[in-house]
Amino acid sequence: MSRDSRLLLLICIAEALSMTGFAAWPALLPHFQADWQLSGKEAGAVGGAYFAGYMLAVPVLSGFTDRIDARRIYFFACLLSAAGSLGLALFASDALSAGLFQMLTGAGLAGTYMPGLKALSDRLSGPRQPRFIAIYTATFGIGASLSYWLSGWVAAGLGWQAAFSLGALGPLLAGCLMLLGLQTVIPHGAARRPRLVNMFGVLRDRATLGYILGYAAHCWELFGLRSWIVALLVFSAGTGDLPLTAASLAALINLVGIPASIFGNELAGRFGRRRFILLVMVSSGALAWLTGVAAGWPWVLLAVLVLYNVAVMADSGALTAGLIATAEPARLGAALAVYSLFGFGAGFLGPLVFGAVLDAGGGKDSSIAWLFACGSLGAGCLLAPLAAMFGKRTAV
């Protein structure tokens, strides 16, 4: 195995470990809805709080990687993730307290996901970089699937507090792996003084702006789906039998998206990145509505969810690789910070809007409510052609 391949493997393993608490809340959402008597809006707000924490922390934790070695930021962020998961396990008793600890855990992700990508790009260059970036971004799906499966499995045997406690262990292992396994590097922008306001100057580049808006639409859909997929499967199981538990099915469906992200980036490189991303987004937006239509038929829903998850993930690597290819190297950390800020800001709103639409449509027992709630996921992607107008100069 080459040095670059070993580097990629180490960072990908760390990323998957750092996310063990990522899906604990959505995996156990039906339990909390019943036990804590949560409305759809409250449940969505707790799910969205994770991404709100990310959004608040990412300007600092990702933006400063232009001058501070990303592995150091990564280790500190893993401590935040562990504290959030353990705090929820020990102290949460309602939507408000759970939401606060979810925010802390989400802030931890802000210092691992994009800083992990920055750690990779600081240590790797050349023609293999876009492929390695796509593989790294696909690891997010592995981490999410692992979290769904572990959370459901542990909670079934030991209770929900144990599931969240386990979510604190993975980030601690990941932080140590990154801190001890990577050599120190000096970032490209180490000589610059960090200024958060100047970070938004990356938006003046139309190509970068196009990728940022595209990523916001992608995250609205992706995180809305991941926040509510278990609850959707539980609703559908009430109308018929499903072969596995809802959390296990969610884990398997998420795994399907991993090769979609990697091969999607390869196809984007062959057929044109803008054209490919637009086609995928419009397709996934339409599949969001089809998912809502299929909610009442369990086996049909499973088939549609597999297709939908493939479409949602197919543009993930292409968007991130495109941003890195267009960003100025010395300001890559700032570009990734703004990219994440817009994306995870939309990731905060997506689950919240989903829950609000579900309540307005009649609640979690209404097929019509699930139809419109699922349809809300595709709103941003169906507007992708408008976002693309801002990125006409994208040429990678």
Structural features, described:
This protein is an all-alpha fold and 396 residues long. It has one domain: Up-down Bundle (Growth Hormone, Chain: A). Helix 11 packs antiparallel against helix 12 and helix 11 packs across helix 14. The two termini are 29 Å apart. The mean pLDDT is 87.
Give the topology.
Blueprint: H1 3-18, H2 24-27, H3 29-35, H4 40-61, H5 70-91, H6 95-110, H7 113-122, H8 129-158, H9 160-181, H10 206-237, H11 246-271, H12 273-293, H13 298-314, H14 316-326, H15 332-360, H16 367-377, H17 379-382, H18 384-388
Helix pairs in contact: 1-7, 1-8, 1-9, 4-6, 4-15, 5-6, 5-7, 5-9, 7-8, 8-9, 8-11, 8-14, 10-11, 10-12, 10-13, 10-14, 10-15, 10-16, 11-12, 11-13, 11-14, 12-13, 12-16, 15-16
